[in-house]
Amino acid sequence: MPRAPFRLLFVCLGNICRSPAAHAVMRSVVEKAGLTAQIEIDSAGTASWHTGKLPDDRMRLAGQARGYTLDHPARQIQAADLAKHDLVLAMDRENLRNILALDRDRRFADKVRLFCEFCTGHEEQEVPDPYYGGPEGFEHVLDLMEDGCQGILREIQAKL
Ligand code: 4NP
Fold first, then answer.
1. Which of 11, 17, 89 to mutate to test the pocket of ligand 1 (most atoms within 8 A of CB)?
2. Ligand 1: residue whose CA is nearest its atom 12
3. Interval between CA 31 and ligand 1 midpoint (Å)
4. Would you state the pLDDT for residue 3?
5. Bridge pairing between strands 87-90 and 112-114
């Protein structure tokens, strides 16, 4: 019997910039590792403002230029996501606090972590929100994603 897939969830505020970028980069990393059947990827926002919308055009185009397809319709994280997923990655500390606020009985806190914990080539502890800034912010998000997603893959491979 194959084991159940490892379920990974990326979370930011709006689910239209950082977490759909993480989602697309991780999908590419997992495909290249031949682990598509073993690792399930999803993303969500702590806010509901953009529910149903495709990723922000600036993030989508920056991703497309590096070969990533950002096509996830935004959705808001639900408490049930914490039970369902094996690893939940927050882009910043505010996201982390809002995710943990859904975990009233403190059952899932050890699977909720900051994305940047998995970066080895960057010093940042949070993925900066690029929404109100210029194009370099979107490139920086992708640089962090390409670094951290490799670290996440190594962590999951050790558990599969
Ligand atoms: P994200 O970026 O959390 O990376 O998707 C944002 C998207 C939208 C807003 C803020 C951040 N907003 O204020 O609408």
1. 17
2. 14
3. 27
4. 66
5. parallel
**pLDDT at position 2:** 52
Total residues belonging to the chain: 160
131 Cα–ligand 1 center, Å:
5
Which pLDDT tens digit goes with each residue over 12-29?
999 999 999 999 999 999
pLDDT band at 1 (very low <50, low <70, confident <90, very high): very low
- Is the CATH code 3.40.50.2300 the one for domain 6-159? yes
Rounded to the nearest 5 degrees, what angle is found at the Cα of 116, between the Cα atoms of 110 and 135? 140
The full 3-state SS of 35-60, as one line of letters, equals: CCCCEEEEEEECCCCCCCCCCCHHHH
Using alpha carbons, select from 112, 123, 106 the residue that is nearest to residue 85. Answer: 112
Q: Tell me the whole-structure pTM to 2 decimals.
A: 0.98
